[in-house]
Amino acid sequence: MYKVYRNVFPAVHAELSYWIERAKSIPDEELRTQALASIEEKTFHCEGGSIYSVLAGAESDKAIRFVVAYQTISDYLDNLCDRSTSLDPDDFRMLHQAMTDALTPGNQPQDYYFYREEKEDGHYLSDLVKTCQEVLQTAEGFNHVHEHALKLGGLYSDLQVHKHVVEEERIPRLQNWFSHHQEEWPELSWFEFSACTGSTLGIFCLVSYALSGKMDTSLATQIERSYFPYMQGLHILLDYYIDQEEDEEEGDLNFCSYYDHEEQMRARFQYFVEKTNEEVRKLPDPFFHQMIHKGLVGMYLADRKVGRLKNAKSFVKDMLKVSGRKATFFYYNTKMYNRLKPGREL
Q: How far, in Å, CA of 45 to CA of 77, rounded?
């Protein structure tokens, strides 16, 4: 963690400063507004994802460059889909082609705004794509991870398309999508599967190991299995858990609302914790992956929004008990950080 605060986060903010300046020069007002808002409101996504750069060893700067560019694409497109007047799945699919191209060196940038009126972004999105491609071209182990990264990236893009269409079509589309994957993951419900696809952690892990030069085919396969579905699912379910009140007020889709009752949700969250524990032990550097796992639990549960949720105290207590001492450590440290940081709520 010392290395992360001393070296990783300053490098993340340097990269983000460059993209903020690029975003400020976007000609179209709406695209400029969403690009700037996506960075301002979701900087912590880039900070968290860039912790994986530690795995890249001497190539950690390249890993940070990739993570910041790829996560910035993700957050920008999420804003464009979430806050625009468009409800067109073709538009969302075309926008997310940028995430596929970013993972495929040699793919030429396309007209990602083909289906929308706002188009003039000053090459902002295509340059983010090219930045990712440039990093991946230098990763000697990327040929081993490309297939796995594309699979995880494709699932992520599918989720973004299905969950942003007109409201009455969202659940049928997500359920139909899951029906094509249910045989592989019969222990998951449709909404849990959807949550598992909504994280970029597996991609960041794959790329960082590829940059380290330690990648081979068996490791790439194991990373996918260790991160998808359980680690990624735990990540996004926690994210939805803390946003329950907010999403209910705004009428947004929240996967936690589809559990039959709170006890079922509590049991399933604990199941995801246990399965994640089991899977990350199979990876090299298990201490690192356990740190990410425990950090996710502790830091999300320490969020101020949790205090506004019904039965939150007992839920947090049970989750920390099943997650262990490291999660409790992250929980109390995050609580303290939230109290001390500037602009805290009184």
A: 14
* Joined tokens for residue 16: 């983000």
Q: 129: which 2 tokens?
A: 């794509």
Task: Provide the pLDDT confidence category of residue 171 given band limits of 50, 70 and 90.
Answer: very high
Contact criterion met (CB below 8 Å) for 320 and 298: yes
Measured N-to-C along each axis, helices 124-137 and 9-24 cross at an angle, to the nearest 10 degrees, of 140
| Sign of the C-alpha dihedral computed for residues 11, 14, 20 and 23 taken in this order | negative
Residues 56 and 63 sit within 8 Å (Cβ to Cβ): yes
Confidence at residue 341, expressed as pLDDT on a 0 to 100 scale: 60
Q: Which amino acid is at 178?
A: F
Look over the chain and give the mean of its residue pLDDT values, rounded to a whole number: 94
Cβ atoms of 320 and 327 within 8 Å: the answer is: yes
Instruction: Find tokens 């990350």 and name the residue.
Output: 280
Residue 317 CB contacts under 8 Å (≥ 6 apart), including other chains = none
Peptide bond just before 105 cis, omega within 30 deg: no
Annotate 135-154 with DSSP letters as a single string: HHHT-TTHHHHHHHHHHHHH
